[in-house]
Each structure stands twice: as C-alpha cells, then as structure tokens.
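Treating backbone geometry as a discrete language has practical consequences that deserve illustration. In the encoding step, the backbone of a single protein was reduced to a row of integers, each denoting a local shape. The amino acid sequence and the backbone structure tokens for this protein are reproduced below.
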Amino acid sequence: MAGNAEQARRAAIAAGQPQPLTPSGLARIAVRLFVLVLAVLFFVPLHYLWRLLRIGSPWPRLFLGTAARICGARVSRVGVPLRRDVFYIANHLSWIDILAIGGTSGSAFVAKAEIGEAPVVGWLAGMNRTVYVRREDRLGVAEQINQLRDALADNWAITVFPEGTTTDGRSMLPFKSSMMKVLEPPPPGVLVQPVVMDYGAAGPDIAWIGAETGKDNALRLLARRGSFRVRVHFLDPFDPHDFPGRKAIAAESRARIAAALEQVNGEPLRPFIGHDTLATGA
C-alpha cells in the first residue's frame, strides 16, 4: 500500500502537480535559503577578490560544495578527477549534479536553460561559468559551441550532460552528441573522463523529471526532510583521439557510464519511465 502511495506521489510530481508544503517543510526552505544567503555573502566577495588579484579562485568550487550540503546532499567522491584539460561527461538526475560535480572537481558546466532559470540554482552555478543551452535553439548551436570552447579554455574543465534532460538514476537516455562538437578535433591535451552520478535509493525521489517545473523541484528538494547521499564516480579517462568523431566519443562514454551505473545499482538499466507512464502505473 505504501509503495502504491509513493508511486502515485511521484507520478503526480512528474505530471507537474506541485506537492503541498507542510509548515515544517516551509521552515526547512526558509532555513536553507537563509544559510545559502550567508554562504553567498561569505564566498562571493572572496571569489571576486581573487579575480581582481588575477589569481586562480578556489571559491566557486568551495561554494558549490557548501551549497550542496546546505540543500541536503552528502557528497562523496569515488575515483580521481582530472584537474585540467578534461571534458567530463555525466549522466543527469538533478540540478544537485551541478553542485556535487562542481564541488568535487571545480568544473564549469553545460546545462539546459531551465536549470539556470530555476530559483536558487541559476546564481549558484552562474559564477562558475555554466553555459546554458536550449534544446530547441538549433540556430544557436554555433554560438553555444563558442561559449563551450571559451569555458574550457578559462576553467580547464567542463562538464556536459549529453542525455539532454534528467532521468531517474535507474535509466539512461541516448547521448546527444551536438555539444561534443568541441571535440572535433579534440583540443590539444584534452582527455574525456566519464562521470557517474549515484544517488542510491533516493535517486528516483530526487530526480527532476516529467513536467515538474524548476521552481517546484527546487522547493520540493529544499523542503525535504533530512539528507541524502550522492556519490560522484570519476571513471578512468580516455583519449578522444582514440574514438574519432563526436558520435564515437558519445557512444564510448555512454557505454562506460552505463556499465558503472549498473554496477552501483546492482541491476540492469531500465527503460526510462516518463510521467505519462508513471501516471498509468505501467
């Protein structure tokens, strides 16, 4: 019975129905937002001071890691992230991914524009030079690639989520290769490092899927009781020259991430269940 109720709740969320906020949930939102504001007031001036002095700033990475913890994530790192000249390719569940990967690696990001428009999130990732893209903006791809090249040159590390949307941590969609055009040909010395986002049992509840808006998702997670673990698995890097073309690079990355995700989940990947399927209980 409890399982059916939870499935119905998740179906409603994915169908875009905002969940009612309890008084305790509203209190958690208020406290977390207040602490986030304190973190901004502490980290942001230090970041701009470092930029004014023209020295490398560690503050965006520390800020994003702190923000993840404030939002309830208990992030741990598995494996060793390359620190520079690296193109991270990751599966995608939530805007928390940006905080977790940024906090463990200092990477800049390519993310869908809706993430930048979500409350709390846009300014959290913006100072770390996130490149926001719109999937429907076909004419803007060249400009997006230019932004991506600039971000890679400036930050030394960039993360893309090539599924193009978020899933539930038990599934993976095909990888879109358009944002990997920056690797045709690969910049000198740049390696590709696949990354697995692992939220454990909390994954389906944390996931931002279906028609849920960015605002509703942010409020739901900030109102959530307790904490949840996030493991960021940095897999072995590979040389993109060994897989010529962005489609080959995307296929190799997806194969490695899928194998690792199946291992951490202890089960084969499932077909992605969209909100329409959830709503019918299929």
